[in-house]
């Protein structure tokens, strides 16, 4: 009995730091922000209960709804790219193992993964230069071949959100590719050998072996991409808000402006809860649908 008590006590002591961290840094702030939803809180003065005033303000806030639309537009472009492109590159890298070996193979994997290492401040600054409307290399190349320059990152340009999504996919390509690559390494080569004997084409092997057995990994990447898309702040702050004060590209940027420029913590808390609820609802739908296409090995 005493040994059992000691084991229980030791177990609870081991998880105590994590439970304390969750309570202090997640649950308590979440409860406080939920209370702030119904207050007018300017930080320098105590919160004042205002009922549903913040909700009424949100319904009439055109900037919020513009940011809301752009956030979903960004997620709709970013998620498919972040799920599909790393898979394609992972399959290509995996199939090239027999051709590329040694240090060159290691260097190639490092090149693919490198964009995931620098912060968004560095990546964003580089892409601001590349996508500059006048002096950017990409627009210079377009001009050289007789095409019109594209205002990639100009405020209210139709190419703004697609450009941000493309850069985000580029930065996350290596990370997603290596998760897929690890999943591919866990698929038995025997299955491919049997399919080859049966005369299966590469497309048939991809459709009937690779994708079904890799579906749990695809599901993981999908959930991560959805979460990253809704939580994207650093990129939008570096590439847009910090340069032009455009607060409509993403809800997280608008939240930041309300909270730390105008000190409107009540309204900012409401924006945070809107993002959280949207993320949870979409994740629940994806979790529900995953039973139809995700195949787990038993």
From TrEMBL:
**Localisation:** Cell membrane
Q: Where is the signal peptide?
A: none
Q: Name one GO biological process term.
A: transmembrane transport
Check the record and name the InterPro entries matching this protein.
ABC_transporter_permease (IPR051393), MetI-like (IPR000515), MetI-like_sf (IPR035906)
Q: Mind telling me which GO cellular component terms the entry cites? A: plasma membrane
The residues covered by the ABC transmembrane type-1 domain are 68-286
What SUPFAM superfamilies does the record point to?
MetI-like (SSF161098)
Entry membrane topology: Multi-pass membrane protein
Q: Where are the transmembrane segments?
A: 12-38, 72-94, 106-130, 160-182, 209-227, 265-287
The UniProt entry lists the main location of this chain as membrane
UniProt keyword NADP, yes or no? no
- A Pfam family of this chain: BPD_transp_1
- Keywords of this entry: Cell membrane, Membrane, Transmembrane, Transmembrane helix, Transport
Respond yes or no to whether keyword Secreted is given for this record: no
Q: Which family does it belong to?
A: Belongs to the binding-protein-dependent transport system permease family.
Q: What is this protein called?
A: ABC transmembrane type-1 domain-containing protein
